[in-house]
Amino acid sequence: MFLVAIISLLIGMILVLVRLFFGPTVYDRVLAVNAFGTHTVLFIGVLGFLTGRPDFLDIALLYALINFVGTITILKFFKYRVIGDPQRDIEERSG
Amino acid sequence: MQNLNFLFDIISWTLLLAGSFFIIIGSFGIYRFPEFWSRLQASSVIDSLGLYLILLGLGVQSGFTFVTVKLIIIGLFLFLTGPTSTHALANAAFISGLRPEEKLETN
């Protein structure tokens, strides 16, 4: 039964990758990356259950954390053109 | 005790099936919808229904062990950060001038 979940996750990943490739705006691509991350979290979890190794769930949790931080960082970069250089931020805003 | 396990298996199988069904629906929506804002709505199908049904199915499969606690932690974390990332994405897209164009279907 886990095989059905894995196959559907793979199909979902392919569809999202196609959107990642064709996405006209950059935010479509960020959306596709975010969805792909969610698929990967589930894929690792189901794979852990399929191979009978419950410690895969730690990896899945870690990947969920990284996926969230990555999405927010990309969005911050596209919005402010700088990720986090406080000194330059202050100069830009005050200069 | 035997049919209790069988019952748990059936429950987890139906949950897993429903979860994978919604994942395919959500991903197909992301691929097929015409513009960004409707794709954003389609991606929420994956983040909410597909994700939690599969996590629930795995949780039923593993019973009351430490594994289920890990699954609950994953679910809780994604419950908190899913909407946040979607809001940040929509906000960034809206500020950058991406507006949902109104298609007036006057037929």
Residue-averaged pLDDT of chain B: 88
Globular, elongated, flat, extended or rod-shaped: what is the shape of chain B? elongated
Largest sheet of chain B: none
The average pLDDT value of chain A, as a whole number, equals 87
Order of helices and strands of chain A: HHHH
Subunit arrangement of the protein: heterodimer
Protein model, in words:
The complex is a heterodimer of chains A (95) and B (107). Chain A has 95 residues and is mostly helical. Chain A has a domain of 50 residues. In chain A, helix 1 packs antiparallel against helix 2. Chain A is elongated. The mean pLDDT of chain A is 87. With 107 residues, chain B is an all-alpha fold. Chain B has one domain. Helices cover 82% and strands 0% of the residues of chain B. Chain B contains three helices and no strands. In chain B, helix 1 runs antiparallel to helix 2 and helix 2 runs antiparallel to helix 3. The longest helix of chain B is centred in the first third of the chain and has 31 residues.
Write a concise synopsis of the structure shown.
By secondary structure, chain A is mainly α. Chain A has helices spanning 2-22, 26-50, 56-80, 86-94.
Features:
heterodimer; A: 95 residues; mainly alpha; 4 helices; B: 107 residues; 0% strand; elongated
Q: What secondary-structure arrangement, pairings included, does this model have?
A:
The complex is a heterodimer of chains A (95) and B (107).
Chain A: H1 2-22, H2 26-50, H3 56-80, H4 86-94
Helix pairs in contact in A: 1-2, 2-3
Chain B: H1 2-32, H2 36-62, H3 66-95
